[in-house]
Automatic annotation (TrEMBL):
<feature type="coiled-coil region">
    <location>
        <begin position="25"/>
        <end position="87"/>
    </location>
</feature>
<dbReference type="InterPro" id="IPR056003">
    <property type="entry name" value="CT398_CC_hairpin"/>
</dbReference>
<dbReference type="InterPro" id="IPR052376">
    <property type="entry name" value="Oxidative_Scav/Glycosyltrans"/>
</dbReference>
<protein>
    <submittedName>
        <fullName>Zinc ribbon domain-containing protein</fullName>
    </submittedName>
</protein>
<feature type="domain" description="CT398-like coiled coil hairpin">
    <location>
        <begin position="86"/>
        <end position="184"/>
    </location>
</feature>
<dbReference type="Pfam" id="PF02591">
    <property type="entry name" value="Zn_ribbon_9"/>
</dbReference>
<keyword id="KW-0175">Coiled coil</keyword>
<feature type="domain" description="C4-type zinc ribbon">
    <location>
        <begin position="198"/>
        <end position="230"/>
    </location>
</feature>
<dbReference type="InterPro" id="IPR003743">
    <property type="entry name" value="Zf-RING_7"/>
</dbReference>
<dbReference type="Pfam" id="PF24481">
    <property type="entry name" value="CT398_CC"/>
</dbReference>
Amino acid sequence: MNKYLNQLVQLSTIDQEIDDFGPRIEKIERALNGALDTKQEAQLKLDELVTQTKEAQLKRSQHELHLAELSDKIKDIAKKVGAIKSEKEQKALQLEEEICKEQCDFSNEEIERLDKIIESKNGYLEEAKAHFEAAEQKVEAAKVAIASEMESIDKERASVYAKKEQLVGQMSQKILTFYEKIRKWAKNTAVVPVRKQACYGCFMRINDKTYAAVLKGEDIVTCPHCGRILYKEAEAV
């Protein structure tokens, strides 16, 4: 294999290594995003329960306030009884008192109902808080793990880029430009091996003349079907 072809094979391998960092980083980010999504869901559930509990407590307070007002009203009616001058006034006060008592019964029933709701919500709140705290811990653990993994990846990536920079510095600009032109559409299959007389980029069989040139390895040969750069893999020892 001539020097330039050997450089192209090496460069293709290095570019593959560089591109492989992308999926690795995406996988790491997905793990963190998954933990963050779980935490957000837990936060929303917790916020919803807090809001519902506060609404129930507010309604309970309003009924208690209404009960106090009704109690004062009933006392006021009792005071007026002594000053009744007619049957009509008596019936009016009795009706007013009955309405007040009915409202008292309703408010007491509502307070009892709301107390049950508040008790139930408080139980769910404890569960939601525990779930949120667990989700928060997972996020923090994921951040620590990710920081460690990213540090390792950054070191690997710096090493690979340094290797590429050194190789590119030794290469012919003309050959490098030719490679980059193919790589634009072929991505990491710009330089591919020939196996069983077939291009391992398009998997088409190449003619005998092209195959013979690939076997010699003296020139840079491209696939007559797809235009990828071809090379013969070294024989396994």
